[in-house]
Amino acid sequence: MILADQIAECREPFVVLDSSGRQWRLNNTADCAAAVTACPARYVLADELTRLCADLAYSKGARTVACADLIHVPSTALWVEWCNAPWQDALHRYGFPVVESGTQWVGRRGALIQATADGRRGLVRTFWTAGFHNNEALASSMEAFFDFDTPEGEAPEPLDRHPVEPNMCVRDSGRTAGDDVLARCFRFRYERSWRDYYTHGSLSAAHSEVVRQHTLATIAVDIPMLLAFFLLLSTRSGLPQRRPDLTRLNRARGKLNRSLLMDRIEVCAPILPAYVAHASAEVTSTRRGPRLHHVRGHLMRHGSELIWRVPHLRGHARSGRVVSRTVVWTFDGAAAIDRRARSTNIEGATPAAANGNEYGLH
């Protein structure tokens, strides 16, 4: 069962008691079940696509290109999910702190996105399964709002026009100020019920900061992953997709009085260059060759084309050779240029300080 189906089945409210004995009903998965069920499109990423999106999202060589003008959410309501294991493996590879024996390596993660008709502004809430048996689905206490047309020096406005203070900004340490889509286009805030809960908790400033950083980590690290997926989805060739036929499975589930599985779109990675094993060449030089090592991916942009140098191994020939390391993705150039013009040709704009706390994503 995918995470979306688990959330759709959630009915029990999330209720907690504070230190004074007051009961709080906090917004969680049961409150989002209807929205996930109503999504016209639910994307489920294959593991190889999860790895590719993670490479694009977190590789330092890929975090130096501004692509906000190429990205849009393809629906006003959208669900995206992926498996935890390949995603956590990528985070570990790119230097993010993870607990190797923890439950973060199991289960699934997902995001519910609401957006405007043009897909340029919206709201994001993230979800994940907890426990080794995936028996519980949880929602982030924070949500992110974005505007891809936010001018540099200004801050995006919430889609619902009801700001919840404070808003938090996360900066990508691998980018310059002008290219940091995360810092320019995204802000993070507590969901209202959680904000009220923490506000009345009488936490000290130090404890509030610890809670803020912990809850921010449950959503901020997912945003680059989603951006990479939307970027690939917007390419002219798109991504390989298929809609599994759930008719027989749902018929069997119906006979057992179990809930029916929802339609989903399974998305795979495009075919990328691979390693080809071959016999080692005869040594003709006394110079010692490089030891086998991993070379990070590099992303370059030329107009409406993105050129991705695939992460690859370099070293001794017996480890295999790379036939080709370059992949070119082409976008609709006219739309990209038009979006860039709208976001940069703003006369008289004055820089404004980000509203709220700033954090770094490493």
Classify the helix fraction into a percent range. Answer: 25-40%
The mean pLDDT is 79
Distance linking N and C termini: 32 Å
Number of beta strands: 20
Model description:
The protein is of the alpha+beta class. It has two domains: 3-266, no CATH class; 274-337, no CATH class. The chain is 28% helix and 25% strand. The protein is built from ten helices and 20 strands. The strands form six sheets. Strands 3, 4, 5, 6, 7, 8, 10, 11 and 12 form a nine-stranded mixed beta sheet that branches. Helix 3 links the parallel strand 3 (41-45) and strand 4. Helix 3 runs parallel beside helix 4 (84-93). It is globular and about 60 Å long. The protein starts with a helix and ends with a strand. Mean pLDDT is 79; it is low at 275-285 and 336-355.
Topology diagram in text:
Layout lengths: L2 H6 L5 E4 L5 E4 L2 H10 L2 E5 L1 H12 L18 E7 H10 L14 E8 L5 E10 L5 E4 L2 E6 L21 E4 L8 H5 E5 L1 H8 L5 H16 L1 H12 L7 E2 L4 H9 L9 E3 L7 E2 L16 E3 L2 E5 L2 E5 L2 E3 L6 E2 L3 E5 L2 H12 L13 E4 L1
Parallel strand pairs: 3-4, 3-12, 9-20
Antiparallel strand pairs: 1-2, 4-5, 5-6, 6-7, 6-8, 8-10, 11-12, 13-18, 14-17, 15-16, 16-19
Helix pairs in contact: 3-4, 3-8
Supply database-style keywords.
362 residues; alpha+beta; 2 domains; nine-stranded mixed β-sheet; three-stranded antiparallel β-sheet; 10 helices; 20 strands
Summarize the structure.
The chain is an alpha+beta fold and 362 residues long. The chain has two domains: 3-266, no CATH class; 274-337, no CATH class. 28% of the residues lie in helices and 25% in strands.
